[in-house]
């Protein structure tokens, strides 16, 4: 169990189980079938996602880490000295945040690190990594979902904040929802606060397809783990050998969609729902979504959120962008 604080509105175990049951019921009865991607992240799912990030094809983590290494000194110079909370929203293992904290501390800032994640294990991992690299670093770990984190931000404005929302997690929302999320996040902050937000950009389809269908099969195992979780927690009898994990890219929409596809006609029973679900051969369940942005869409999102675009940092190939948004006065 994590030694860090669980936010008051974060789902407790019984509520989380009820939410999972409800999502599976809706997902398997709906047409098309869709189960939200955040249910991937049990302990095994979090481990597999870390493994996905280390595959050669999954460029997102590697490219964004390079951007942050190069841009952190410029960002720190803009922020200057003084106290600041670095709020890592959806921290994962926190690996990409360390260069920013290092640059801020080198510039004289008094940093407090605030990792927020739905996984207590992730908060523990990120905090431990930061303590190992920066002995004496002040840390306030928080366990909760994105919206729990936003609620916390709206009530804790005693210090300037740099909110980091990395990994192109904003792309997990369709564009209207991404705009609503960005607006809500920015409204929770105070004038002068900043958001450092990662965007995966439009690019040729081949590297996108490869990133989500890696040669080692780690990404597909990550997706299939959702069925394993349904089996374990809801008493289902999914046979993982009878499903294929496959991701596709739609260049018109500009989005990756991740599917679990039934390889044959079959029937699956979910004991917690006391219901059987029938699949025809090649019936899909959508389990993930990742929108890829154009630079002008990043500017448009900032405009809709009523914030200033202070900087946009790109890699040399312009595959990824980390944008700095500053909360404007008034």
Radius of gyration computed on alpha carbons = 20 Å
Q: In CATH terms, what is the architecture of the largest domain?
A: 3-Layer(aba) Sandwich
Helical content stands at 25-40%
> What's the mean pLDDT score?
92
For the biggest sheet, the summary is: 9 strands, mixed
Output the helix-strand order: EHEHHEHEHEEHEHEHHEEEEEHEE
Q: For the record, what is the CATH homologous superfamily label of the largest domain?
A: Vaccinia Virus protein VP39
Number of strands: 15
- CATH classification, class level of the largest domain: Alpha Beta
Task: Provide a short characterization of the protein structure.
The protein has helices at 13-29, 43-53, 59-79, 98-106, 120-133, 146-155, 175-187, 205-212, 218-234, 295-305; strands spanning 5-6, 33-34, 82-89, 109-117, 138-139, 142-143, 161-165, 194-200, 243-250, 255-262, 266-270, 275-279, 284-291, 307-314, 320-327.
Explain what you see.
- The protein is an alpha/beta fold.
- It has helices at residues 13-29, 43-53, 59-79, 98-106, 120-133, 146-155, 175-187, 205-212, 218-234, 295-305; strands spanning 5-6, 33-34, 82-89, 109-117, 138-139, 142-143, 161-165, 194-200, 243-250, 255-262, 266-270, 275-279, 284-291, 307-314, 320-327.
- It is 40% helix and 26% strand.
- The strands form three sheets. Strands 1, 3, 4, 5, 6, 7, 8, 14 and 15 form a nine-stranded mixed β-sheet that branches. The protein has a four-stranded mixed β-sheet with strand order 2-13-10-9. Strands 11-12 form a two-stranded antiparallel ribbon.
- Helix 2 (43-53) packs antiparallel against helix 9 (218-234), helix 3 packs parallel to helix 4 (98-106) and helix 7 (175-187) packs across helix 10.
- The protein starts with a strand and ends with a strand.
- The mean pLDDT is 92.
